[in-house]
Amino acid sequence: MGTNSFLNNKYNPMFYAAEGIQELEKALGMASRVYMGYNNERRSFGKGQAINITVPGSFTAQNAGTGSQDVNTQSVNITLSQHKEVQFEVLDTEITHGGMSMITDHIRPAMYALADNIDAYLMSLMNYIPWKIGAQAITSHLDITNPRKILRDNKVMLDDGDIHMAVSADMEAAFLGLNIFHQAQIVGASTNQDVLLRGNLGTRFGVEVFATQNAGVAHTSGTIVNGGDQSGALNGAHAKAATTVVTDAFTSGQTVKIGDSFVIAGNTQRYVATADATVDGSKNLTVSVWPPLVQAYPDNAVVTFENGATHHLDAYYGQLMFHRQAIALVVAPLPEIGNNIGAKVATVTDFLKIWWMI
Fold it and tell me: Span 333-346, mean pLDDT?
């Protein structure tokens, strides 16, 4: 009876859940910079693993009296497909050491493992981004301004403070050596001290630059991109919103890898392969793509893959510049079944983020 009373007093799941969320948020890099507003939508429309997000339409300004334009409403499905946990056992003797010991020895590393997993998964979504640009041979301000130009060309809002750039340890080190980050006469004394003393890169050219250990994964391109034909043609007409593209005129045996991108004549929209594919014996290539085709394309429309030699994709360091709303993260709590029946469960919610602890 005395032991149970002691455990009830010492093990407070709400306390540890609250401490856990603090540790988790400290380690979050990508998750704190992407859009998480759909958590509320999921709670509003009930339970489930899928959320349908409506994509805003696009219109063209016309002379008055021209007539109305079609509203082609599209949607994107977000599926809660990742179910991660960290389980560990704690002995009574460890609990007697006090709350701080539990936090430093168990809670902190457990939360870091979860945060690292979330961060790595979000970084892996760069494979769905069709626009790439080769890094400079010697790191310079162009490694920020060049990808920023691509965002501008794609009509991304750059003036709302929501542009971020995840960089690897190598690029962080190179940036820290640039005058634009640490010279006082350029960035101001206080910013200069923050970079020199704390290594915080901060914001340059409207882009908030931060480092994550999950950046820097080199892209391995297929043989079409890396010295192959690079140009082919659609095999048959393709309808708007199609998610699979069939081409011909490539050399049999050549390959496409996840992340390789191409453009189809008739529109500047780039598409990216979302699965590996190989050209068959009839010189046909069937590849899954993102985004869905933005328009209908005719038979034999020219398909041109990116040039690996030009973009240096195999030497690409995997940095990622993005607008907050380019990526959405939805999280949901585990059920509290069994609470106080052999286990104590507590859920802690912080604004739009929900985490849990057993």
Answer: 65
| Cβ proximity of 126 and 102 under 8 Å | no
Q: In sequence order, what DSSP letters do the residues of 24-86 get, joined into one string?
A: HHHH-SSGGGSB-THHHHHHHT-S-SEEEEEEPP------TTS-------EEEEEE-------
Question: For residue 345, how many other CB atoms are within 10 A of its CB?
Answer: 19
Give the separation between CA 297 and CA 236, rounded to whole angstroms. Answer: 9
Two tokens at 316? 């690409």
pTM score, whole prediction: 0.80
Burial, 132: exposed, middle or buried (Cβ in 10 Å; 0-12, 13-18, 19+)? Answer: buried
Contact 273, 259 (CB under 8 A): yes
Q: In the sheet where 163-167 sits, what is the strand order?
A: 202-204, 207-211, 163-167, 320-323
Classify the C-alpha dihedral 263-264-268-272 as positive or negative.
negative
Tokens of 205: 């050219």
CA distance linking residue 268 with residue 224, whole number of Å = 20
The contacts of residue 271 (CB under 8 Å, 6+ apart) are 130, 245, 261, 262, 263, 264, 289, 290, 291, 293
Instruction: Tell me if 53 sits within 8 A of 74, measured CB to CB.
Output: no
Count of residues for the chain?
Answer: 358
In this predicted model, what pLDDT tens digit does every residue of 57-103 receive, in sequence order?
677 787 887 778 776 666 677 778 888 888 777 776 666 665 667 77
Q: Which two tokens stand for residue 82?
A: 């990742």
Taking only the tens place, the pLDDT of each residue in 111-157 is 888 888 889 999 999 888 999 887 887 889 999 999 999 999 998 98
pLDDT category of residue 335 using cuts at 50, 70 and 90: low
